[in-house]
Specification:
The structure is a single chain. By secondary structure, the chain is an alpha+beta fold. It has five domains: 112 residues; 150 residues, no CATH class; 106 residues, no CATH class; 123 residues, no CATH class; 30 residues. 45% of the residues lie in helices and 15% in strands. The protein is built from 19 helices and 20 strands. The strands form five sheets. Strands 1, 2, 3, 4, 5, 6 and 7 form a seven-stranded antiparallel beta sheet that branches. Helix 1 packs antiparallel against helix 2, helix 2 crosses helix 4 and helix 14 packs across helix 17. The protein is globular and about 100 Å long. Bound molecules: adenosine-5'-triphosphate. The site of adenosine-5'-triphosphate (ATP) has 23 residues, from strand 9, strand 10 and strand 13.
């Protein structure tokens, strides 16, 4: 029943205390993002990575604080349901002019669901649906930055406009050669626009904050001309000499999707109205769910909330059944999916075979490590949920049997619902072992090269995947190879890469068993071959491109570089997109052309005479 009167005077104070908790969260979140600029300018890469990692924890800390405060000051666990409804109504009132109402609603849900029983998780008490609109929110404070700036060049002033766009960010470090970079940029933009005629609305819109991640800062925006819109992102990096340079320009939905991929770390963006950023980004990547956009800009709890809403909506509009995921079953994870929905659900089993010497806590800590680490485009992001209720009737019997057998401690049957106490959700990919089965020779070649590249990217990011079997990697929609089996992951710097020692006698040599001593963190790369390279065509490609992965020296060398403080470069775009490489290519082509001319010149000379 909807309360006719807001009669409980505590309800307002509770709502206000809840909102104070959220505001504190967003203030700390904003401070961390705002500081990314100074870290980028100073080249403090370790600091940037640390801040990215620490920021992920902020939300849960503030939710815990909020729930504690409500218990302490208002004995929240004992409040009547009528009072809780009033709290929600007051809270809605407090959000009317708020700049992040959707995030504050999610925060309300996170705090209240810690206090209330599951049976109250409905729209009377929590925000199952949003109550406050995020449309047209503006920050009207005089010193505030707009969400985006619009520039109105005419054809001839386009170059000046790009210089102004870059300079408006006021980066406190000089560019190596901004004129040269803007020439590249402009020529790339003009190539994209083709032989265009500037329409009345011709403009460049640029989001006001740079997007920071690792060693890069990105300008993000779109060129608009008539009905045509060209989304772009411009990465700014440091040169080896510590000067700034524009490294490339990315255009269009596909290239932006790569930049904002679920397999990369979240950006740091200084924004007062995040929903406006999301709306802008969505206009550039209409196929990317809003949940993933929120996550990509560091608001991963909002992403998680929106994902869950999308999931419930999908369930209501589909009729297929959850099934065991195709592929080789996991030893520590039970994985299932819903064919009509492009995600998988992963539950940690209660027991594992003897070769898996691990525990639930250890596995969770590995998944957390991946969440906090730079995923370098090679590790899928996971959403972690507790107490998710599924309609039992939508489960295949075989899956229910497996869940009951492998995960009894995590299941609760509640009427028609099947509640899973803990699970991870991640993007569904085609497991690489399945992909290779039906692949053409060309596809095999591309996949094996990409697989090796994936491992090398992980290595550069200080990750040893542990179990490198094909089945632990997936192929994404655009053919990228991504790792998803995290239970054996280690920091490279904590592993000890060794060569297999020489056998001391014939007995040792002929032994089928491991006869040498192996420490818990010892890894013998030369022993990977027999597990990976049974298929001759795979072997041939692998050895041609990635034979170094079987050499302990390769791994040890990277480990030493990382220990010496080196922070790898990660490029979320092809090397051929880099202006530097394009310049080199042009120079090489010009040199080759003049060589040809020189060679031809003496032969041609006599005929001219
Ligand atoms: N994101 C995904 N997309 C598609 N299939 C997946 C995904 N994640 C897992 N799977 C399927 O589930 C299987 C088991 O998953 P996973 O490798 O995570 O479990 P595990 O128990 O850690 O495995 P292992 O026994 O190798 O340690 C995979 O081999 C694959 O077939």
């Amino acid at each position: 029943m909807f309360p006719r009167a807001l009669s409980d005077s505590r309800a307002f104070d509770i709502a206000q205390a809840m909102l104070d908790g959220f505001n504190r969260h967003y203030q700390l979140f904003t401070e961390a993002n705002a500081a990314a600029k100074a870290r980028f300018e100073a080249g403090d890469w370790h600091g940037q990575q640390r801040a990215q990692r620490e920021r992920i924890e902020f939300y849960d800390m503030r939710v815990d604080e909020g729930a504690e405060r409500l218990q302490r000051e208002f004995n929240a666990g004992e409040l009547s349901m009528d009072t809780w409804q009033q709290v929600k109504l007051h809270y809605i009132g407090l959000l009317v002019n708020h700049h992040q109402p959707e995030l504050a609603e999610t925060f309300f849900n996170s705090v209240t669901t810690k206090i209330l029983h599951r049976s109250y998780f409905n729209n009377d008490f929590i925000f199952v649906r949003p109550a406050v609109s995020t449309e047209y929110i503006e920050n009207d404070e005089p010193a505030s930055l707009p969400t985006y700036r619009a520039y109105y060049p005419v054809r001839d002033s386009l170059r000046d406009t790009w210089v102004r766009i870059v300079n408006n960010f006021q980066l406190q470090r000089p560019f190596e050669d901004l004129d040269r970079d803007v020439d590249h940029l402009l020529s790339a933009v003009l190539t994209q626009l083709g032989d265009f005629k500037a329409r009345a609305n011709f403009q460049v819109q640029v989001l006001s904050s740079l997007f920071y991640r690792n060693k890069g800062a990105y300008i993000v925006g779109k060129v608009i001309n008539g009905f045509y819109e060209l989304p772009f992102a411009v990465p700014i990096l440091h040169t080896p000499q510590g000067l700034l340079t524009i490294d490339a320009v990315l255009f269009g939905e596909d290239e932006l999707q790569m930049l904002f991929s679920f397999a990369r770390a979240y950006f740091m963006v200084n924004m007062e109205v995040p929903s406006a950023y999301v709306q802008f980004l969505r206009s550039m990547m209409p196929r990317k769910p809003r949940s993933e956009i929120y996550s990509a800009i560091g608001l991963h709890k909002q992403g998680k909330n929106l994902f869950y809403r999308d999931f419930l909506y999908h369930l209501r509009h589909s009729s297929d059944r959850f099934r065991i995921a195709p592929g080789i079953k996991g030893m520590v994870m039970l994985v299932f999916d819903l064919p009509s929905f492009p995600f998988v659900f992963k539950v940690i089993k209660d027991f594992y075979p003897p070769q898996k010497d691990t525990t639930r806590e250890q596995i969770k800590s590995k998944y957390l490590l991946v969440k906090q680490h730079d995923r370098v485009g090679r590790m899928a992001d996971t959403l972690e949920y507790s107490n998710v209720a599924f309609p039992r009737a939508r489960f295949e019997e075989e899956l229910i049997e497996e869940l009951k057998h492998f995960c009894p401690s995590l299941i609760e049957e509640d009427g028609d619902s099947f509640v899973l106490r803990h699970l991870y959700i991640e993007r569904r990919m085609v497991p690489l072992n399945i992909y290779l089965q039906d692949a053409t020779r060309e596809q095999i070649e591309r996949a094996v090269v990409e697989y090796g590249n994936a491992i090398k990217d992980l290595v550069a990011a200080n990750i040893f995947p542990g179990d490198m079997l094909w089945k632990n990697f997936g192929v994404t929609r655009n053919g990228k190879i991504v790792f998803y089996d995290y239970d054996e992951i280690e920091y490279l710097t904590e592993c000890n890469f060794r060569r297999v020692p020489e056998a001391r006698n014939e007995e040792e040599e002929m032994s089928g068993e491991v006869w040498y001593r192996v420490g818990p963190k010892d890894v013998f790369p030369e022993t990977f071959g027999p597990f990976l390279l049974g298929n001759p065509s795979v072997r041939e490609v692998f050895m041609k491109h990635h034979g170094d992965l079987l050499d302990a020296g390769f791994w040890q060398g990277h480990k030493e570089r990382i220990l010496a403080g080196h922070v790898h470069d990660v490029f979320p775009y092809e090397a051929s997109k880099r202006f530097k490489n394009q310049r080199r290519l042009r120079e090489a082509q010009a040199a080759a052309a003049s060589l040809v001319q020189e060679r031809q010149a003496p032969q041609e000379a006599p005929s001219n005479n």
